[in-house]
Amino acid sequence: MIEIMLICSLIFLTLSIIAIMYRLVKGPSASDRVQALDTLGINIISGVAVFSVLMRSTGFFEVILLIGILSFIGTIAFARYLERGVVIERKHPK
Amino acid sequence: MNANIPSEVLPILLILIGTIFSLLSAIGLVRLPDVYTRSHAASKSTTLGVLFILVGTFLFFLLEEHYFSIRLFLGIFFVFLTAPVAAHVLVRSAYRSNVALAEESVQDDLKDFIHTDSKKTKDAEVNDTD
C-alpha cells in the first residue's frame, strides 16, 4: 500500500518535471528558462526525498543538500548575468 | 495490515499533499502568461510542496526508524531560506533586463523609477569611461 502511494507520488512528480521541461524548451525569454531550471532543481529534490522513503535509505540526504545548494548558486549567477552582463564584478578593470 | 500503520500514515499523507502542490505549480508554470505571474507559481507553491515532502520524509525516518537526520533538517532549512531569495533575484533581474509584461496587465508602478534610474546609471557609467 505504502509503496503504491509513493510510486504514484513519483509519477506525479515526473509529470510536473515534464511540464517544467516544456517551459524550459519553449520559454520566450532567458528569464523564463532560468526560472524553469530553478523549479526543476526543487522538483528533483522532492523526487530524491520520495525515492529515499521508497528505498528506506538515508544515504540520499547529501544529494538533497547538494542539489539545493548548487541550484541556488546557479540561479543567483544566472540572474546576475542577465541583469548586468557579468557574474563577478570588478570595480576598476585594468 | 500490521500494527505500525498509524506511524506511517502521517508522513505519507504529507508527501502526497506536497506532490499535489508540486503538480499544481507545474501546471501554473505552463499556463500563466508572463514571467512575473509565473514566478508566483514557481516560487510560492513549489516551496510549499517541497517543504511538505521534506517534512514528510523527515517524520517518516523519525517515527519509523527513530533516526533524526541533521542533514535532512539542514536541507529543509536551506530550501526554505533560499527559494524565495532566488525567485526575488530572478524577477528583479528579469524586470531590469526589460522582459515584457503580459498584455493583460493593467499597471506598472516601477516603470518610472527603474527605467529612468537605469538610464541615470548608464549616463554615470558613460561619464566614468570618459
UniProtKB/TrEMBL annotation, chain A:
* Cellular component terms (Gene Ontology): plasma membrane
Q: Which residues cross the membrane?
A: 6-25, 37-54, 60-82
The compartments listed are: Cell membrane
Organism, scientific name:
Robertmurraya siralis
Q: Kindly give the InterPro entries that the UniProt entry links to this protein.
A: MrpF/PhaF-like (IPR007208)
Q: Which UniProt keywords apply?
A: Antiport, Cell membrane, Ion transport, Membrane, Transmembrane, Transmembrane helix, Transport
In which family does this protein belong, per the annotation?
Belongs to the CPA3 antiporters (TC 2.A.63) subunit F family.
Instruction: Give yes or no: UniProt keyword Ion transport.
Output: yes
Q: What is this protein called?
A: Na(+)/H(+) antiporter subunit F
Keyword Magnesium included in the entry's annotation: no
- Mention one GO molecular function: sodium:proton antiporter activity
> What is the recorded membrane topology of this protein?
Multi-pass membrane protein
